[in-house]
């Protein structure tokens, strides 16, 4: 039996010292952050996802953002050297969890790449050259995935941490996008919902099993998504957003067989 699986990780007590690139530091209420992350995991489970929650990493502030150290495809999982050196130890325990489900491949230094910089739509991976992902990382990813018939396309972005801060795929050939932060010319084959001008950080959404999980803090953009015919499930991640969190970054989603669990 095949089912949708999510790997998550408990919030580290060190999240109060997380990496920040485009946001000013504000105090994070640890217990509230943990409560919001548990609600996220519970929502995934309620939508039929098998959630595998890894234990917290007390010495690694950003370790709950499990999307960044790996890309999971049908054929393999690619373990990534993160662009921030202090985050690179996050990959080891994640790789150990993933090896039960996929053959592992690795991108190696001097390459760097973060999963938040990768937007997968079918067999195309859009990858941004950013402060966290370099050209060598993209070159190695292209080489690793070519035998599996994936296409890798480089995308420039400005003003945000990761590509999926600027654009995510909702399904039905529709993107949710902040066009000020990336070049939409590379996505002319897709329709688009633009985020509300007052909600520049609202382009990160998680479509899952006939709904779109979406931050409760962006009501104007939510209305735009619903007007396009999508069902939206709002979720409060306000405390986690202080750590530059979106919704996609807190889980690794992939199909797996029950035998592998």
Provide a compact summary of the structure:
This protein is an alpha/beta fold and 261 residues long.
What features would you highlight for this structure?
three-stranded mixed beta sheet, globular, alpha/beta, 21% helix, 15 strands, single chain, 6 helices, 261 residues
Verbal overview:
- This protein has 261 residues and is an alpha/beta fold.
- Helices cover 21% and strands 26% of the residues.
- It has six helices and 15 strands.
- A three-stranded mixed sheet has the order 2-1-15, covered by helices on one side.
- β4 (77-79), α2 (90-98) and β5 (104-106) form a beta-alpha-beta unit.
Whole-number radius of gyration?
17 Å
Number of strands: 15
Query: How much beta, percentage-wise?
Result: 25-35%
Mean pLDDT: 93
What topology emerges from the helices and strands here?
Layout: E1 2-9, H1 30-46, E2 50-54, E3 70-72, E4 77-79, H2 90-98, E5 104-106, E6 118-121, E7 124-129, H3 135-145, E8 151-156, H4 163-166, E9 167-171, E10 174-177, E11 191-194, E12 206-208, E13 211-215, H5 219-227, E14 232-235, H6 238-241, E15 252-257
Parallel strand pairs: 1-2, 4-5, 7-8, 10-11, 13-14
Antiparallel strand pairs: 1-15, 3-4, 6-7, 9-10, 12-13
